[in-house]
Design a protein that fits this description.
The protein is an alpha+beta fold. Helix content is 42%, strand content 30%. Strands 1-2-3-4-6-5 form a six-stranded mixed sheet, with helices on both faces. Strand 2 and strand 3 form a beta hairpin.
Length: 153
């Protein structure tokens, strides 16, 4: 592990541990590190920095043709601003559109109220639910009702 990845692991620990463990899961930083490495190789790793400091990062993967999945979307509490969120989200959408992605999916623990609010504001809809969380889906073909479309134009 190098110093750069330590920065990401520290952010993961700070922002993910509490709601992950409240949901009954275990936060495994090494697995997250491997996921970031894989995403970086496949051009599916995105980050935002503010004055050189890691503000946020995200990783995505294509589940099947046209359907992409958000593996990670993590923002430092000091940088949870519309500018940081939207810049990172814009990078994800641009990558998807290059690959003709039509749907973006994400899983959110029910404990993670901030993420739930963020998904709903962007126009994601709940497509599945279980005891611990929601699957959200954003239909990128629905340009009339989704707020993401205005971000790219």
């Amino acid at each position: 592990m190098n110093i750069e990845w330590n920065e990401y692991m520290a952010l993961d620990d700070l922002t993910l541990r509490a709601h992950t463990e409240r949901s009954g899961a275990k936060l495994e930083l090494e697995i997250l590190e491997k996921s970031r490495e894989t995403a970086k190789i496949s051009d599916c790793f995105f980050e935002e920095r503010v004055e050189g400091k890691l503000a946020a990062y995200a990783t995505i993967m294509e589940k099947e043709e046209g359907i992409w999945f958000v593996l990670m979307f993590n923002t430092h509490p000091a940088f949870r601003t519309p500018k940081v969120f939207l810049s990172l989200f814009r990078k994800i959408l641009q990558r998807m559109l290059v690959s003709e992605g039509k749907y973006l999916q994400s899983n959110v623990y029910k404990e993670n109220r901030l993420s739930i609010k963020f998904h709903e504001r962007l126009g994601f809809k709940i497509t599945r639910e279980n005891d611990i969380g929601f699957e959200y889906t954003l239909d990128l073909t629905d340009t009339a009702t989704n707020k993401w479309y205005a971000m790219l134009n």
